[in-house]
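Table S2 (continued). Query chain:
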Amino acid sequence: MSDVVRPIGTGWIVTGRVPGPDVDEFAESDQVIAALAGQNGHDSLLAVQHPNHTPQAMAEGLSVAEALPAAQRMLERLLDRDYRRVEHVVAPYLATGPDGTALGMLCLVDPAAVDADGQARIRQAEQVYPDVVAERAAVLAGLGCATSAAMLVPVMGGSALTTALRGVIERHDAPDVHLVDSDGREHRLWLLGPGPEQDELVTLAQRHPLLVADGNHRVAAATGARSALLALVTGGPALRVGPIHRMLVGTGHTADELAEAWRRIGLRVTDVDAVIAPDRPGSVLVLAGGRTLSVELPAAPSNEPLPRIDHGVVEHVLIGEALGIDPAGPLVRALPAGTRPVADADAVLLIAPVPYRDVLAVHDQGRRMPRKSTYFTPKPRSGLVLAKIAPLS
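Corresponding output:
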């Protein structure tokens, strides 16, 4: 139990801005490739995280393994230039913005920890894309350094951690890092070394199992790489769950073809004038070819466990069954709230946010949410703290 959560043994804290493009801005590999192409080969954390997507690696057709040596050298340069080293710390972290408030602690976590009954201490909440996990695990193992943090939420007792963290930051001076990101969120971070305060926070953070609110692929990658996980453990106090939509790209389907396919399997499809994304489960708004379609989702069969999550229905019924498209393939992309769709998208399917109570209910049943179905905010910014990751015994 004492090893579930632990301080960062060796880490680095950014001394100015995170080097390079905003590493949290890009959801798809083509966006990463385009951003790196515009950097003219300059060192950046984004290039370290995606070594096979740099212009040079792309031109030479390098695999992740073949591109890693250059990424390792680049990381060393960034650590020398843009970071300062810290030892045996946890990092109280406060993020505030229009999409909520998160007061938590950056630390290391064992993603494979189990309790005395063999139950996982870190509970993954969503299904994942195996190819993404494999690539991230290879990069993590090759670098030996975590460059971004997952967000973990205690399944209960989060308010006690929040109260303790408030006391810590009130007793300490100005934060070691203070910045405002491009979306107007304010991020403050303090460093807390060994002592009673650190011990109390570690104890509170690991008192109960931790649910993965954001970063299921990072958790799976750390598990696959048999390494510790850099994580923000937070109980709020005002986390929000926003929607993650879906885009169809390169399918060639028109609005008429989509409507016909969905009606063919018995769904009700109507044209509407207003583009108002649904705020409760049960329907999807589709933007395609200058038209706006409202699609009512089918009722759940009697043997299906509740609550039903719309994202699974959209992927398996609207996309898989009606269109014959692999929802995990390249023609379907996730679109987090507030992100612009790509210019050549055939359609954007706007899905209601999943109520937080439904997330907890699915977890309580031992089920997993459909992949890319929850968008917890505000998230920790990647690159503020980096952590050396040693293989777990």
